[in-house]
Known about the structure:
GO terms for molecular function: DNA binding; sigma factor activity. It comes from Nonlabens arenilitoris. This is RNA polymerase subunit sigma. This protein has ten helices and no strands. By secondary structure, the chain is mainly alpha-helical. The longest helix is centred in the N-terminal third of the chain and has 21 residues, at 16-36. The two termini are 30 Å apart.
Amino acid sequence: xxxxxxxxxxxxxxxxxxxxxxxxxxxxxxxxxxxxxxxxxxxxxxxxxxxxxxxxxxxxxxxxxxxxxxxxxxxxxxxxxxxxxxxxxxxxxxxxxxxxxxxxxxxxxxxxxxxxxxxxxxxxxxxxxxxxxxxxxxxxxxxxxxxxxxxxxxxxxxxxxxxxxxxxxxxxxxxxxxxxxxxxxxx
Length: 187
């Protein structure tokens, strides 16, 4: 896909015209997503910038191809980064220390590894049944077992717990059976 290479090369060469196009087309979608998920405009801009850096670092280290459009890939990377930030704390606040830590010497390798882990996790989740996807999404979003019982029409919280356990176990099996898992494990 020629457009995807255009964007990847633009990130590596700091082509401001092409990068501006990404900001115009994709940043508004990222802002909407982040704001709808407990964030601010500043959070969205920070996440967008981190995603651009992350993709550039990963591509520079190990060129890859994108199966979807570059803009969809970028948006997914932003969503994954924001979800990770939400999981780390109830709300992410940018400060100078975090920005400095992001740019430390070993951050490039960390960013690359983190993105590859997220992609492996997402690929395994995509292979899960629709029921397991729903259950795991609820579980990862801290939905109570009582709410799961109501939403999924289970007979009891025990059934919901057992189903979460089985889905997590299946997800772990899918991750560990992936050839990518062994490659990441060696890093």
